[in-house]
Each structure stands twice: as structure tokens, then as C-alpha cells.
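Q: Predict the bound structure with NAP.
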Amino acid sequence: MRVLITGAASGLGRALTEELLRQGHQVVAADRETDSLENMPMAHRGSCTIRFVDLESADSIQRLLASFQGQQPFDQVFLNAGISATGKFEEIPAAAYEKLIAVNLFAPIYLASRLVGKELMARNSRIVFISSLSHAMGYPGASVYAATKDGLAAYARCVDKPFRKERVRVLTVFPGPINTAHAKRHAPEGSKASKRMAPQKMAKLILRAAKGKSKTYYPGSKAYFGALFGKMMPGLATRLMRRGIYDKLKGPVY
Amino acid sequence: MAEKDARPHTVLVTGATDGIGLLLARAYAKRSHHVLATGRRGIANDEEFFKFPNITYVTADQSDPRHAASTILAIMQDMGWEKLDLAILNGATAWTGPPYDEPINTIGDQLKVNLTSPIHLILALTPMLHAAQGRLVMIGSTSINKGHGQFATYVATKAALNGLSRSLREEWRGKANVMIIHPGPTRTRMHAKAGLNLRFVRLFFMSPKKVARAIQVAIRRGNEGRKIITRFGCFMARFSWAGKGQL
Ligand SMILES: NC(=O)c1ccc[n+]([C@@H]2O[C@H](COP(=O)([O-])OP(=O)(O)OC[C@H]3O[C@@H](n4cnc5c(N)ncnc54)[C@H](OP(=O)(O)O)[C@@H]3O)[C@@H](O)[C@H]2O)c1
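A: Predicted complex:
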């Protein structure tokens, strides 16, 4: 398989990249930070192409897309890159919100649209959008982050049918907390890393779901029950999130 | 804001030059509130256009979110507003067509006008909304429930507003009331502007007047997440838009 992964240098993207390489696939790993990808252990069977992309910049995304022209199409694409901003809504500057919208919403929408529109996807291929469990629970203390992840989930739902006609299937994943540097930076003080899922485990679950048929996936039992709870009692879920996160915030992180 | 018009309120309506927004601006003016109406157009004579002396208009194009927010804040300060009782974030734009054909500029524009601009505006207005214990109302869309293949980015922006409202409502509990109201298919010029000819299906859409009235009721009662729909209109919208070609 030929696979594209955005945000491949660290966290979940890194785990997806390494697992796919271990399985012997051809991975195009895109990130704005490429040094750590160069130094990847070489014990893998697959081949890795490293591509620089700054997802805050439409020009940079365009250059990335141009580099795919005339190459073999992708069998799987993981639009995984995402950033966060935590704190009280009004304590985070507008510029940080613009960045969130660019990276979490504009970039995956534009990439998905062009990958399909320019026939860079193989027949019966798969685009995987990484949303967040906040879609089910709400996320006071990261309200614009939550907004972008809801927007992404809605976009994925909308394109499901039109993309299917082009022989591309869509999967949206709603991961709960993952034990990555990203999570550590944004988690409230005193939260336990052991409660977050290891990225390697999350990557395996997501890769398995990408092979399956479902359109949405909540990885792990915690996310599954979280989603169930959030759907049945949305108000209460968001209130509990407020107590668990917003009320314990120390200050804005963006 | 829950009490009925005890004193003139300060009301902001964005996207108030057409459709639902125009009707809302006029309705609040009719009840003798002070209304600030905004939009992208230049309007020569406010009173002639809006037919009410207590509506002030300012051009604030939301495709430049930073500038729109600072313009709106500046004029409120000029008018001496210290509190904002009600902000209705209604201004929005849409593009319709297959998602894989969507031009880069319209993806960017919808994100800016429908999402980034409201965020800039809320940031700018936070102190005034908190001072009034006011009400912040976002206008969403019932299209976020099932999604829509020909309006993917538009629906994404409305779902994002929905998510923002859900979390911000909790954050601002006790400080100001945040809510979102979701109109269903309504007979405004929005679809034509988006490049969609509804033809006869228009007939089954709700009248903007009724929708504007229902929005006011929902605001007064604080009906969070209120969906304004007629079942048959929604059904017809899906039926027609699922058709072939440019519909
Ligand atoms: N109509 C429906 O079926 C429907 C369904 C669900 C939700 N909604 C939502 O309801 C709200 C009102 O829509 P509507 O049907 O009344 O549409 P509309 O008649 O087109 O009104 C939209 C308003 O927003 C303004 N606007 C557009 N782009 C702008 C920009 N860049 N900067 C500032 N203002 C801008 C428009 O200005 P111009 O007059 O210059 O165009 C107009 O005043 C929107 O949020 C829409 O998404 C509508």
C-alpha cells in the first residue's frame, strides 16, 4: 500500500508511520518538522518518503500536492495533523484561533478535496479524518479546538457519498486522550498520563478500523462509552468536562 | 435579557442586509431597541434602507475577520455602548457543488466569514456581553444533522459553530448566555448566492418571516439548540438536492 500521513513526525502520526513501515508499506510522511523523521530507526521493511509541509500555509499545501502529481496514487491517507489551544476562550488571542482553524480545518478540507479531485487517490482507497472524542463530549477550556473537530467530523459526513462515487471511502476517528507530548502540554495539572492511551496501541486500532467498513470509529472502550454517554446526555457530559478540565485550568496554552 | 423589553436593549445583528438577518434587525428595532446592523455592502442611507431610525448600519466584511471585529467594536464605542444585551451572529456565506471541485478561495471564504469572523467578534465583544449578562446567539443550520454532499464546507462551518456554542455555553455559565439556533431550509436568497437554483423546491421552504419570528421566540425563551423546521420542507430539500446536476 501507498499511504500518506500528515503530522507524521510525532504523536499518533509517528506511531501510524512506524506501524505501517513495520508492516512493509510505502509511506509518505509529511510534517513541518522533518529532522526526527530522518532519524527513524531503520529496522522497518517498508519505505518512507519524507515531505515538508507547513499546514498553516495554503501555498505549502499546494506544493505538497504538486509533488504527488504523476506519482502512484494513495491507497490510504491519514489527515492526522492537529493542534490545540487550551484555556478560557477569551484568554487566547485571535491569532492562535486562526492557526487552529487553518491547521485543523482548512488543511484537511483542502487536502481531501484535492486528493480526490486531482485523482491522487487509488480506486477503493480510504481517507481517514482524525477528529476527537470532544465531538461527543464537548470541551470547555478548548472551545475552538472542539469547534474545529466538530467541523471536521461534519465535513467527513458530508463528503462520504460524493467521495464514494469516486471510489474513495471516508473514515472519521474520534480518539480520546492519547499519551503524546501534545496531550501533556494541554492536559490540566494533576491528570494522569497512565489514563491516556499509548499512541502505538491507538495506531494499531485505527489501522484495523481503516481496513474495515465503518464510517466512524471511537477507538478503545473509554472512547466508546464516552461517545455513548455524550450522545445520551450531552448537557451532563459537557458539564462534567467543565468540572474535569475547565475548572482545573492553570492558564492558557497555545 | 429574559425579561420582556423592560428597557431598550443594545442589539447586534450581523449579516443584516438580507434574508433572516434583515428581518431580525427590523424586528428588534420595531420593539424600540438600539440595533447595530452589519454586512458586507456599502449602504448610502441607513434609514432609507432599514426603514427605522434606531438601526445603525456599519460595513464590516467578515471575509476580513480582524478588520470586521475592530470596526464593529469601534462603532459601538462611538455610540457609547458599554454593554451588549444581545448579539446575533447571523452573517454567513455558502458555496454549493461537489466537494472535490470546490475552489480554494471559497473554502477559505466560508471558513473566514462563517467561523473565524464570529470568533474574532466574540473575543472583541466578551467584556460588553459579560457586563450586560447578555445573550450571544449563533445561527447554525439543521443541515449539520445529516450532512449535505453539495454544501460540505458550509456544513462544516455550521457544525463548528455548534461545537463552539456547546463548549462556550458551559464556560460562560453565570457570565452570559450562549446559545445556537438552527434554522431549517428557508426561502431566502442564500441558495441563489451560493450558486444553487432551487426551482420549484423553493415553494416548500419556510418563509423567512416565520423563521425570524421563531428565532425571536427561541431567543426570548432561551431555547438552546432550537431547530426551526417543517418536516416536509426538510424532506423536499434532501429529495431535490440529492438529484443530479446543478440543483
Ligand atoms: N436560508 C436557509 O435555508 C438557511 C438554513 C439554515 C441556516 N441559515 C442561516 O441563516 C443565516 C441567514 O441566512 P439567510 O438565509 O438570511 O441568507 P441571506 O439572505 O443570504 O443573508 C445572509 C446575510 O449575510 C450577509 N453576508 C454574506 N457574506 C458576508 C460577509 N462576507 N460579510 C458580512 N456579511 C455577509 C449577507 O449580505 P448580502 O446582503 O450582501 O448578501 C446577508 O446580509 C445564515 O447564517 C445562514 O447560514 C439559512
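A: Chain A has ten helices and seven strands.
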